[in-house]
Amino acid sequence: MTTSRMPQRTAVQAAPLMVPLPDDVTAPARARHEVRSALLAAGLCEAQLDDVLLATSELVTNAFEHGEHPWRLELAYADARLTLRVYDAGRLLPELRAPSPAQARSRGLVLVQALSEDWGFERCPGGKVVWAVFRILGA
């Protein structure tokens, strides 16, 4: 069972997080570290982080590999929903594709879709933003 669907205690209202992302292979690790630290500080327990951290890795990796340049990650919490946004300079919009069993890659957005309550993307000045929403349930 994914942790986003497990009963969870309510997090303390977290201040919005904005993290500039490096344009190199360290971007996913930096993003995971920052998101983990912010969510633990906001009162979530370690077991509640798995889905959000995996989605963070997938979205930032996609921004790095397909988005031409990752800009920043934003995290916001309101109304029992955690929204993760990753901005990049790419003009090419994400495409959800069912991977073949023989493929070792191309499962990122499928994972994000499975782990999150909702996800999507939109164009923004200079590129696009890809987002995922996670419901954080009260105990």
Chain-wise SSE layout:
Elements: E1 17-20, H1 27-41, H2 50-66, E2 70-78, E3 81-88, H3 108-115, E4 118-124, E5 127-135
Antiparallel strand pairs: 1-2, 2-3, 3-5, 4-5
Helix pairs in contact: 1-2, 2-3
Q: How would you describe this protein?
A:
With 139 residues, the protein is of the alpha+beta class. It is built from 3 helices and 5 strands. The protein has helices spanning 27-41, 50-66, 108-115, and strands at residues 17-20, 70-78, 81-88, 118-124, 127-135. Strands 1-2-3-5-4 form a 5-stranded antiparallel β-sheet. Strand 2 (70-78) and strand 3 form a beta hairpin. Helix 1 runs antiparallel to helix 2 and helix 2 packs antiparallel against helix 3 (108-115). The longest helix is centred in the middle third of the chain and has 17 residues, at 50-66.
Quick structural gist:
The protein has helices at 27-41, 50-66, 108-115; strands spanning 17-20, 70-78, 81-88, 118-124, 127-135.
Helix/sheet category: alpha+beta
Distance between the termini: 17 Å
Report the β-strand fraction as a percent range.
Answer: 25-35%
Number of DSSP helices?
Answer: 3
Mean pLDDT: 83
List low-confidence stretches. Answer: 1-12
Strand order of the biggest β-sheet: 1-2-3-5-4
The biggest sheet amounts to:
5 strands, antiparallel
Query: What's the order of the H and E elements?
Result: EHHEEHEE
Shape: globular
Compute the gyration radius: what is it?
14 Å
Quantity of strands, as a count:
5
**Helical residue percent band:** 25-40%
